[in-house]
Amino acid sequence: MPKIRTSRTKKPPEGFEEIESILDDYAKKMRDAENESHEGKRRTESLWPIMRISHTRSRYIYELYYKREAISKELYDWLLKEGYADAGLIAKWKKMGYEKLCCVRCIQSQDMNYQGSTCICRVPKADLKSGTVIQCSHCGCRGCSSDS
């Protein structure tokens, strides 16, 4: 017999109704991306659409709270707690030089080709050879440096 789910979290704060339809649209896009066929793609390539949707949803919530000041602190904290946005990514966006960061994994030096370096998408386009097409192998980003 399946386990019955009961919601123990409190009701969403005031103002959630105004953005709920947009968050539902992101949830539908996420389901579609998860159910999309992965044939002919590398393992990391199949995750790129999911990461892009997660990034745009987090960016939407970040801009609502910090740029437009359209939602309350209580609603913002509740959205982060419930997993509607990536709190680590938003924390980096608030720091200088990371305003356009695509994902937190791109600034970690552990998984990179050269020890102690960052992802290729963090290199400003002016510092690359002309005509060089860059694309992150982790998330598919084509350049998220603040100088790009």
UniProtKB/TrEMBL annotation:
Q: Pfam families per the record?
A: BUD31
Q: Which family does it belong to?
A: Belongs to the BUD31 (G10) family.
Among PROSITE patterns, the record links this protein to:
G10_2
- Does this entry carry the keyword tRNA-binding? no
Q: Which UniProt keywords apply?
A: Coiled coil, Nucleus
The record ties this protein, via InterPro entries, to: BUD31, BUD31/G10-rel_CS
What processes does the entry annotate via GO biological process terms?
A: mRNA splicing, via spliceosome
Compartments where located = Nucleus
Q: What is this protein called?
A: G10 protein
**Taxonomy, superkingdom:** Eukaryota
| Regions annotated as coiled coil | 16-43
State the organism named in the record. Sistotremastrum niveocremeum HHB9708
Q: Name one GO cellular component term.
A: spliceosomal complex
